[in-house]
Design goal:
Helix content is about 15%, strand content about 25%. With about 200 residues, it is α+β, with helices and mostly antiparallel strands.
Length: about 200
């Protein structure tokens, strides 16, 4: 507890100011940082230390739409694939070729004045604000850093639309752990051009 001291000749008591700064610093150190802040401490689970996935600029115009689906009442998910990933049309074409990039874009659904989701001419719920890009990239030596949670030769990063991290590489172990459950026979991919399976 801070104890008052006699007033000095300067505007604010230095001891009180120092105590306030120390308390603030202790509170900040005691507050856990979120996984998506891009500056938090590294995960205790093994994961890549650098970003080899890369933010997919202009994915919406350069990549092919592989699947679109609604996530509950609030979001629309669109899965895009680059030219390599788009070569895979189904299970018989697996595994994905190296260089494949899959982007799962999550966007808020457009709602009318009554709060009802608005559908476009194609019957799909219209997208409004993109809130996240969940990106996976396949490469010949990718995924090794995940150790026992390796989901084949894939690495994972989640980005905001501006390219900043939601989940940086060092925190992406949970992504690999989840995709391991999709299984080797699906090349560790849940959706895209494949029949969907729940994660």
């Amino acid at each position: 507890m801070l104890t008052p001291e006699p007033q000095a000749h300067f505007p604010m008591n230095r001891t009180v100011r120092r105590d306030r700064i120390l308390l603030l610093a202790m509170a900040l150190l005691a507050t856990p940082m979120s996984a998506g802040d891009g500056v938090s401490a590294t995960s205790d689970k093994p994961a890549p230390s650098s970003d080899r996935v890369g933010f997919p600029k202009e994915y919406a115009t350069r990549f092919t739409v592989l699947r679109t689906f609604d996530r509950g009442e609030r979001q629309v998910v669109t899965v895009y694939g680059n030219a390599e990933a788009a070569q895979v049309k189904g299970m018989t074409n697996l595994p994905f070729p190296d260089g494949s990039i899959l982007v799962m874009e999550t966007a808020d659904a457009v709602r009318d004045s009554n709060g009802v989701r608005r559908k476009g001419p194609d019957g799909r719920v219209e997208k409004e604000t993109v809130v996240g890009l969940h990106v996976m990239r396949r490469g010949p030596d990718f995924g090794v850093a995940y150790g026992t949670n390796r989901a084949g030769p894939w690495e994972f990063v989640e980005y905001r639309p501006d390219g900043s991290y939601l989940t940086p590489p060092a925190k992406s172990a949970a992504c690999a752990e989840c995709h391991v459950k999709a299984g080797r026979d699906r090349d560790y991919v849940y959706r895209g051009p494949l029949p969907p399976v729940a994660p």
